[in-house]
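dumping this here so i dont lose it
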């Protein structure tokens, strides 16, 4: 796992690359690597977290012929099989088991088709001297990030936005559409960032930069819709256990010790239980708790699972003081405004003190039902005799579900007129709403439609976004076996969703977990982890709230009007609980802005 940077430019030099590489050095503290080709004006850099082939996997890595150079962030979990296949075709490898070299040699054989063969998490860039191009891509689900900018025909990329912001020509101008999306969804959408000058490569996309023409093209090599092309073949619990077990086996392999996140819920419990059955030594598990939130604390169930499986268990217990003392660092690390959950920051920080790799249950919800989100749409679908009637019903539901936060945009006197006019060039939530309608109509059933929507939106742009930033800030590689491409393909091409019901939408996973854990542990209801922002905004964060919404601050910022914002703040402080989600969303935006521009 690494941080990668690079550019093709005749106007910048080694010092620029070194500065870009250094600012995201937390992603890989084990080694630094630099490559440059003055003739082409190409500079590649990386910061390495050594997990596989610690000695042989150094980067940037050049091919034996010297025509290809790669910088790569991630892990390829079918690299052994790919290496064997390439060896049979006459490829001679110079490293023992480096997956970096596997990607490089596969590219020499397959070119732009390379990412289609990869099962794992990855973002990489390859200099191809033969075709005078740089080929970049990002994994199918968007587990690993890749940002880029094109200026005057020159190309720049990095693993984090903050590296690109060191470039002298990157402006602080904000993208109005992204701000609008943030206030609708508490996060920024795909293909964009909050900065006008910086873009994000989407999951499952490749980008090719052409030196001669100084142009670029973007092509999808994979889409979530590709998962739903099967004929609904039966998937037994025995078969599901086999493919899930295979995924876990692939994703826990490392040349360094591995830790496990154990929340106490079904997803992480199943992953840990399967891993325990595959390993000869006791696993190391970690659970996060919060004494102030006893009703939502899952440490007790995690202890039961740990005791049953015989793991070496560690509990991290947060206090309000600890949480708030690191809030600024959390927000700065994210690079973009985000108002979702952030407690995993502390889990990854604790794990990173002893480990380089951690395994989590992220993706289990999207794979298997995601809290019955399909149920209400299914009722609409069944009740709609004609397609137009169904779309009308879906439109009504979308407005009810997603616009509660973005109503802040519609309050009078909240945004300055010039800012508001720009925001409403792209009505808030337009991209996600159209995706939801398209997914439901394309797949013609709500269970598949919602799964497609979640795989395309919240999973990459919230959960995986947050997981990557928080873990890599602490030099920790986090793995997500539920997002194994082979596993996803088998499940989504099966009829498993036909048997789901709103009372036990994860029945198949529950049956599998019963192979490894007692039913009384498995059947414990999910509690979640709720942060008491309402209490903190009224007490510990009150001074910060008042400062960030003061007339002086808002005038300097030039986005919000004091009159509308003060009404929202006063309503909240007077006890109007309906304001909390809107105010928290505004507060987190203001904190992000303050840390980046004040």
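and the seq i came up w/
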């Amino acid at each position: 796992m690494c941080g990668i940077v690079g550019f093709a430019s005749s106007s910048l030099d080694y010092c620029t690359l070194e500065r870009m590489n250094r600012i995201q050095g937390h992603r890989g503290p084990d080694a630094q690597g630099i490559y440059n080709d003055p003739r082409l004006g190409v500079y590649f850099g990386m910061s390495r977290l050594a997990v596989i082939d610690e000695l042989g996997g150094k980067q940037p890595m050049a091919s034996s012929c010297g025509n290809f150079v790669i910088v790569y962030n991630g892990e390829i979990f079918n690299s052994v099989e790919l290496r064997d296949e390439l060896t049979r075709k006459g490829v001679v490898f110079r490293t023992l088991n480096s997956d970096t070299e596997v990607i490089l040699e596969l590219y020499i054989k397959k070119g732009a088709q390379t990412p289609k063969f990869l099962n794992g998490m990855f973002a990489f860039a390859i200099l191809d001297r033969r075709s005078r191009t740089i080929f970049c891509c990002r994994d199918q689900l968007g587990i690993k990030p890749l940002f880029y900018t094109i200026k005057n025909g020159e190309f720049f990329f990095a693993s984090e936005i903050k590296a690109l912001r060191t470039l002298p020509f990157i402006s602080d101008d904000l993208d109005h559409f992204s701000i609008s999306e943030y206030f609708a969804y508490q996060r920024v959408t795909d293909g964009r960032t909050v900065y006008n000058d910086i873009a994000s490569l989407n999951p499952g996309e490749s980008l090719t930069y052409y030196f001669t023409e100084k142009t670029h093209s973007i092509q999808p090599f994979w889409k979530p819709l590709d998962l739903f092309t099967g004929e609904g073949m039966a998937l037994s619990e025995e078969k599901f256990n086999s493919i899930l077990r295979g995924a876990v086996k692939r994703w826990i392999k490392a040349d360094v010790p591995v830790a496990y996140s154990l929340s106490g819920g079904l997803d992480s419990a199943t992953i840990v239980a399967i891993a325990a059955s595959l390993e000869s030594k006791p696993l190391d598990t970690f659970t996060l708790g919060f004494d102030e939130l006893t009703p939502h604390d899952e440490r007790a169930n995690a202890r039961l699972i740990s005791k049953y499986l015989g793991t070496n268990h560690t509990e991290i217990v947060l206090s309000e003081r600890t949480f708030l003392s690191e809030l600024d660092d959390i927000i700065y690390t994210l690079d973009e405004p985000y108002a979702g959950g952030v407690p995993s920051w502390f889990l990854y920080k604790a794990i990173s003190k002893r480990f380089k790799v951690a395994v989590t249950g992220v993706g289990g919800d999207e794979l298997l039902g995601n809290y019955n989100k399909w149920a209400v749409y299914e009722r609409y679908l069944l009740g709609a005799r004609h397609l137009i009637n169904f779309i009308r019903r879906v439109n009504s539901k979308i407005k009810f579900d997603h616009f509660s936060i973005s109503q802040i945009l519609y309050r009078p006197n909240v945004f300055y007129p010039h800012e508001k006019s720009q925001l409403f060039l792209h009505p808030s939530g337009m991209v996600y709403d159209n995706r939801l309608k398209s997914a439901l109509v394309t797949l013609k059933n709500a269970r598949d439609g919602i799964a497609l929507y979640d795989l395309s939106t919240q999973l990459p742009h919230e959960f995986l976004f947050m997981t990557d930033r928080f873990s890599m800030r602490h030099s920790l590689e986090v793995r997500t076996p539920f997002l194994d491409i082979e596993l996803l393909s088998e499940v989504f091409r099966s009829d498993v969703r036909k048997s789901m019901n709103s009372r036990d939408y994860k029945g198949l996973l529950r049956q599998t977990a019963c192979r490894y854990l007692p039913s009384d542990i498995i059947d414990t209801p999910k509690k979640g982890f709720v942060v008491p922002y309402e209490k903190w905004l009224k007490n510990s964060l009150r001074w910060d709230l008042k400062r960030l919404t003061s007339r002086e601050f808002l005038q300097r910022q030039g986005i919000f009007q004091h009159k509308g914002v003060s009404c929202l703040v006063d309503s909240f402080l007077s006890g109007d609980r309906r304001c909390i989600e809107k105010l928290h969303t505004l507060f987190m935006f203001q904190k992000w802005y303050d840390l980046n521009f004040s």
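The two ends are 33 Å apart (CA to CA).
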